[in-house]
């Protein structure tokens, strides 16, 4: 189980290596491997990753973005979080416009993409059926993100929850990793913000809410590229980064 496995690691790189071998949730293991066998027609010639997805980004990141779980034919195929699907296309393009990513596209785990001061992770590391992990699967997976946040704690100053699931999953994880969660608990919303004091008296952590960058939100206009740029720029500033200002038209 992850709760026992994380006790073996001594650094973020070692944690990332260990997580890819996790088989703690039978339903998720079966689904991620079934997706790799069946494949989508467009990806018939590709070998799917079909394992848990580690976080992506530097070990001294000041800003962390947290999603939901890998997509069955996105990260579960490519081996990198938010890579190979429309959600990732929007997210990485925004990070590139802000000067926080080396390129606007993320297509495969070895495509040369670098993030600057930013790390991206998920509270659930395997692709779930219908993008809906159970509460038990979320809780079983929690030790991975708690330990990841503990390793990032010396430098991280802001976290963005991409969607309500990420927000709810993050609150107990952040509490376990060393930050105080206000009472009543802060509520999710696009643009929501809460400052979480550190339990050891260190710098506070800024928690930001953003609608998830899924097609369900972007294709309906609920979330636009400009809204993503504005939210990430604000979060990056609270993290102590210096994002560039994108052009007036985010599609340029």
UniProtKB/TrEMBL annotation:
Superkingdom, taxonomy of origin: Bacteria
Kindly give the Pfam families that the UniProt entry links to this protein. Answer: UDG (PF03167)
The family database entries (SUPFAM superfamilies) matched by this protein are listed as: Uracil-DNA glycosylase-like (SSF52141)
Q: Does the keyword Hydrolase apply?
A: yes
* InterPro entries (alphabetical): UDG_Type-4/5, UdgB-like, Uracil-DNA_glycosylase-like, Uracil-DNA_glycosylase-like_sf
Q: Which UniProt keywords apply?
A: 4Fe-4S, DNA damage, DNA repair, Hydrolase, Iron, Iron-sulfur, Metal-binding
GO term, biological process aspect, one:
base-excision repair
Q: In its keyword annotation, does this UniProt entry include Ion transport?
A: no
Q: Which CDD domains match?
A: UDG-F5_TTUDGB_like (cd10031)
- Domain Uracil-DNA glycosylase-like positions: 54-232
Q: Which residues form the signal peptide?
A: none
An annotated Gene Ontology molecular function: DNA-deoxyinosine glycosylase activity
Family recorded in the similarity comment: Belongs to the uracil-DNA glycosylase (UDG) superfamily. Type 5 (UDGb) family.
Which protein, by its recorded name, is this? Type-5 uracil-DNA glycosylase
- Native organism: Kitasatospora griseola (Streptomyces griseolosporeus)
